[in-house]
Design brief:
With about 525 residues, this protein is an alpha/beta fold. The chain is about 45% helix and about 10% strand. The strands form three sheets. Strands 2-3-1-4-13-7 form a six-stranded mixed beta sheet, with helices on one face. Strands 8, 9, 10, 11, 12 and 14 form a six-stranded mixed beta sheet that branches. Helix 17 runs antiparallel to helix 18 (about 400-410) and helix 17 crosses helix 22 (about 465-485).
Length: about 525
């Protein structure tokens, strides 16, 4: 192995014979050089620190593990980076995360509101923000200036500007607007098209009525962009970085993406940097205040970690202002999660765009503010992505898409469309999908006889409790299999099936494919 390769290898403390090793999650880096720089600095920063579990010293190594199956059993993982918005609160509700308020007693003052609120539930803090992101609109400042346009305030204005510029430029390969519409992301992008109407996915939370009018308006606009050629069909297969790359190479007028693009623009040569600008997402009416999704990387500590004491100290050290100031100054990542970073003079000189953080985050909306996202947000993303993909490809009508979304989202709702005993049963099942659920066990939880429980549940749902449990678990299994990061055995275990073969047989019976066939 070349010497420089060995020197650049991410390092933690060297493990002594018989010592314990804590695995520490890393932020996501696009560039390997940035990852190496972070790893080397983290090693130097932590080399004087000692971490203990009880009286025994614990060593540490970097890890890139974001697999949720790590949360369901004893693990060496001490810190996990949660990048999927909405999941930290969900895992906290499941009792899978270690509370953090003892390590950060002043967290409401220490962290950005939009960051700490993502991980707060039922009086406990379950995650802390490494950084906060918001989806926004980026635009070609040079092209808008050329045609006498200001940044668009409405989607209709954006459409008119894009058409005018494309006609005037006659440049091959130039697109009107870019975003990321692959199946695992497009539902979260689509939420922006609902929220910028001043609407929400559901009209009200009492009986969970799908807001069909708002969904129809958003779907028509999105498909209109594709049909008019303002948005290339390739966006439906792009990875996270692809829209940034195309936009920064001058191949689009507008970009609808996360605020990470601000840092990318900031790092361009000054003469290129001046060609780009950014603003809040447009709305459907000037009377509506724009809302866009807020996300970013949050750190959590698994409840099942073998080393909670060491993990807590590591997280506290990692979240100290001096380290986070170094990170913000040298590696960026709008916007830092710690309030004090914004007051550091060196950081502000290096990252002038931090002055805009408060303004942009006022336009943000947390998934935690949406009462319908009580369950695992990834389940919503996968179901919504599947249905939107069919619609945008012209393989499913608008009405069929809305009907199928309504039907498939119903089991994910906090109380679905049921009441009384059935609603309690559904809520219990949804909150315990990782367990092996028995009908008798649920009946005891509800303090009724199994016979009465089965009869009432069947009358209200048209299914037996066991059929409902299997259907809901298979929907989640399909989402996990398509994600691709878990083996069939890990999927089975994460859903409470102790026998992989039994899970595979049941999956084949209900889905008409084996797990491996479905994954393909």
């Amino acid at each position: 192995m070349p010497k420089n390769k060995k020197r650049l290898k991410p390092l933690g403390k060297r493990s002594a014979p018989g010592s314990r090793t804590l695995e520490i999650g890393f932020p996501f880096f696009v560039e390997p050089a940035a990852k190496r720089k972070y790893s080397q600095y983290l090693h130097r920063y932590m080399q004087k620190e000692k971490f203990f579990q009880g009286s025994r010293e614990v060593s540490w190594i970097p890890a890139e593990k974001t697999d949720p199956s790590q949360l369901y059993g004893p693990t060496n993982l001490g810190l996990m980076g949660v990048t999927h918005v909405g999941t930290a609160a969900y895992y906290g509700r499941q009792g899978l995360l270690h509370p953090l308020e003892s390590a950060f007693p002043d967290y409401t003052q220490y962290f950005l509101d939009a960051g700490w609120r993502r991980g707060a539930f039922n009086g406990h803090l379950y995650s802390v923000p490494h950084h906060v992101s918001i989806r926004m609109l980026f635009y070609r400042k040079d092209l808008l200036r050329k045609y006498g346009f200001e940044p668009p305030l409405t989607w209709m204005e954006l459409e008119e500007q894009a058409i005018t510029i494309l006609r005037g430029e006659k440049m091959a390969g130039l697109s009107g607007i870019l975003t990321n519409l692959n199946a695992s992301i497009c539902f979260s992008v689509f939420l922006d098209y609902i929220w910028t109407q001043g609407q929400d996915l559901y009209e009200k939370s009492t009986d969970w009525v799908l807001n069909r009018k708002a969904l129809e308006t958003g779907l028509k606009l999105l498909r209109g962009f594709l049909e008019m050629g303002l948005m290339p069909q390739s966006t439906q297969s792009w990875d996270y970085q692809d829209p940034y790359r195309e936009f920064l190479q001058g191949r689009a007028v507008f970009l609808h993406h996360w605020s990470d693009g601000i840092q990318m623009i900031h790092e361009l040569p000054p003469e290129e940097r001046e060609d780009f600008g950014w603003c809040p997402l447009p709305t459907f009416s000037l009377k509506i205040h724009s809302k866009a999704m807020v996300g970013g990387l949050n750190y959590v500590i698994p409840q099942s970690t073998k080393y909670p004491e060491a993990a807590l100290k590591f997280l506290k050290t990692l979240m100290r202002e001096d380290f986070q100031c170094w990170y913000a100054e040298n590696l960026g990542s709008p916007y830092p999660g710690i309030k004090g970073v914004y007051l550091d003079g060196k950081v502000r000189r290096a990252r002038s765009y931090l002055d805009q953080a408060e303004f942009f985050l006022r336009h943000g909306k947390l998934l935690e503010e949406c009462p319908y996202f009580h369950g695992n947000y990834i389940d919503w993303v996968n179901i919504g992505g599947q249905e939107l993909t069919l619609f945008l490809a012209g393989q499913q009508s608008l009405s069929d898409t809305l009907d199928r979304m309504e039907k498939r989202f119903t089991p994910l709702l906090p109380h679905a469309l049921f009441s009384g005993l059935t609603a309690q049963a559904v809520a219990f099942i949804q909150a315990n999908l990782e367990k092996s659920l028995k009908v008798g066990q649920i009946a005891r939880q509800l303090k009724v006889s199994p016979e009465h429980f089965i009869r009432v549940f069947n009358q209200n749902t048209g299914q037996t409790p066991l059929q409902y449990i299997n259907d809901v678990k298979m929907e989640k299994a399909k989402a996990l299999l398509k994600k691709g990061s878990l083996t069939v055995g890990e999927v089975a275990y994460s859903l409470g099936y102790k026998n992989r073969d039994h899970f595979s047989r049941l999956f084949h019976k209900l889905v008409k494919h084996t797990p491996n066939e479905y994954r393909k």
